[in-house]
Design brief:
The chain is mainly alpha-helical. It has one domain: MFS general substrate transporter like domains (Growth Hormone, Chain: A, Up-down Bundle). Helices cover about 75% and strands about 0% of the residues. The longest helix is centred in the first third of the chain and has 38 residues. The relative contact order is 0.16.
Length: about 475
């Protein structure tokens, strides 16, 4: 593989090793896709039935406004989960930075977090089916806490052994692995329709429809973690990559050099705060969609829940293309303009969804509506655009830290995202309560994406990676 025209110069990405690290992302996105697709509807169903003493079928078919009226409570419960993550992600990131064991500094957290989450996960639908709301919520909290133990160290594993100029391309590969995990969960949702469970009267419900996806997700996340553990020898790789990591540090795309002991420069701090502020805003939009799109499809579009899964599949396929091409785009125009391009595409796609309404009724057991084709196009553009954003933004954050603090700065990245995910379900839930309009979802998301685009484009500098010949003052870093 030639390095000509490659800003990484003599550095070379180890594709096989990066894909193996990607098994951590496979497990993360598999579990979260099941969690996000099923849990908000579980909460909506059980809360609405308790409040109005009506069956789910009665609520859906004749009392749709009551479903909207409880979304703020659903938002508060989902936000409490995220509030815990806001505290735990930075904690586990910093703790793993300081951990030293025979199997590495990240692997103990990954193994414990995976096993506990996998055991607790199938109890969520079981308690929901039995009507035990408190038990269901406790299981959701346990899963969340131990996935936070897993998530930050798993994400930090890639930059631990990947030089800075190569992290955007590496991030693309591991995100493709993650989206394969999400796609696996989505296929489960196509064949095991949540709407087939929700739309029938309580006594006719069959537990296996909602239990099977959670059991399969638990088994798959354990398998993916075991593949990661047996393939990636953390301590050995840290020793092998010392020279590459040192060269990558010298070539980093930062305004001022980063040192292990030196305090962070004002220029780098301003860059970090700008990236995190924009990230907070795009996650305000992203998580609003992730939390409520299942309910939007079932209760507003009156469509089968498999339509949500199809949206996820087409968006995920477009994301894979985005992750595969983002590194090359960033090499040409820089990471800043790659992220800005992705946000602009996302604004266009979500804005178009503001004008979508349910279409004509089609024949079906529940009288579902035909699903608007324009939403599939919107999700394709959004999937590609946000892949460009996520691919480049995380490497930009860990570019600004020394290699000894990757877990800590990964925690900063997730602090911004989880802060947004704590606030946005409640905020949008209250908007639903005030407007009683499902159309508030795409409108709200569009506003947040626009604000994110403005902050990122106006406040973040486009600093290119140094070339090897510039390391001794022959060439200055390129800024635009």
């Amino acid at each position: 593989m030639s390095d000509q025209g490659n800003p990484a110069g003599g550095l070379r990405l180890h594709h096989r090793r990066t894909l193996l690290i990607g098994f951590a992302f496979f497990g993360i996105l598999l579990l979260w896709q099941v969690y996000d697709s099923w849990c908000p509807t579980f909460l909506t169903d059980i809360i609405a039935r308790r409040m109005y003493n009506m069956s789910s079928a009665q609520l859906k078919n004749g009392e749709a406004h009551k479903i909207l009226n409880v979304q703020w409570i659903v938002g508060i419960i989902m936000a409490c989960d995220n509030l815990a993550a806001l505290i735990l992600l930075p904690f586990f990131g910093s703790l793993s930075d300081r951990t030293r064991t025979p199997i590495g500094k990240r692997m103990p957290f990954i193994l414990v977090g995976t096993m506990v989450s996998a055991i607790a996960f199938p109890f969520i639908p079981l308690f929901f089916h039995r009507g035990y709301a408190a038990g269901m919520i406790v299981m959701m909290i346990i899963v969340l806490i131990f996935m936070m133990m897993y998530r930050n160290p798993a994400v930090a594993l890639m930059p631990d052994i990947t030089p800075k100029p190569l992290r955007a391309k590496a991030n693309g590969l591991i995100n493709i692995m993650g989206y394969l995990g999400g796609a696996f969960a989505t296929v489960l949702g196509i064949f095991l329709k949540l709407s087939d469970y929700i739309n029938v009267y309580d006594e006719a419900r069959e537990l296996w429809i909602i239990e099977l996806p959670f059991v399969i997700a638990s088994v798959m996340i354990v398998i993916s973690t075991l593949i990661l553990f047996t393939s990636i020898k953390e301590n050995e790789l840290a020793e092998e990559t010392k020279e590459e990591m040192a060269l990558g540090e010298k070539m980093a795309a930062v305004e001022t050099p980063v040192g292990d002991d030196a305090p962070m420069s004002d220029a780098n701090r301003r860059m970090l705060l700008a990236i995190l502020s924009a990230e907070f805003l795009w996650f305000m939009a992203d998580n609003a969609i992730a939390t409520y799109v299942g309910n939007y499809v079932i209760y507003y579009m009156n469509a089968a829940s498999s339509a949500t899964m199809m949206l996820t599949i087409v968006g995920g396929a477009a994301s894979v293309v985005g992750f595969a091409t983002a590194g090359q785009i960033a090499d040409r125009i820089g990471r800043k303009w790659t992220v800005s391009l992705g946000l602009a595409l996302t604004v266009f796609s979500v804005f178009s969804a503001c004008f979508v309404s349910p279409t004509g009724i089609v024949t079906g057991a529940h009288g579902e509506f035909a699903f608007p084709a324009i939403l599939f196009m919107s999700w394709i553009i959004k999937g590609y655009g946000m892949a460009l954003v996520h691919n480049c933004s995380f490497p930009m954050v860990v570019e600004l830290c020394p290699n000894s603090q990757i877990g800590k700065f990964t925690g900063f990245y997730y602090t911004a995202s989880m802060s947004a995910q704590t606030i946005t379900p409640v905020a949008l839930g209250l908007v639903f309560k005030m407007t009683l309009l499902w159309r508030a979802l795409p409108v709200y998301a569009t506003v947040m994406y626009i604000l994110s685009l403005l902050v990122f484009t106006l406040r973040v500098k486009n600093i290119r990676a140094r070339k090897p010949e510039s390391l001794y003052g022959q060439e200055a870093p390129d800024e635009n």
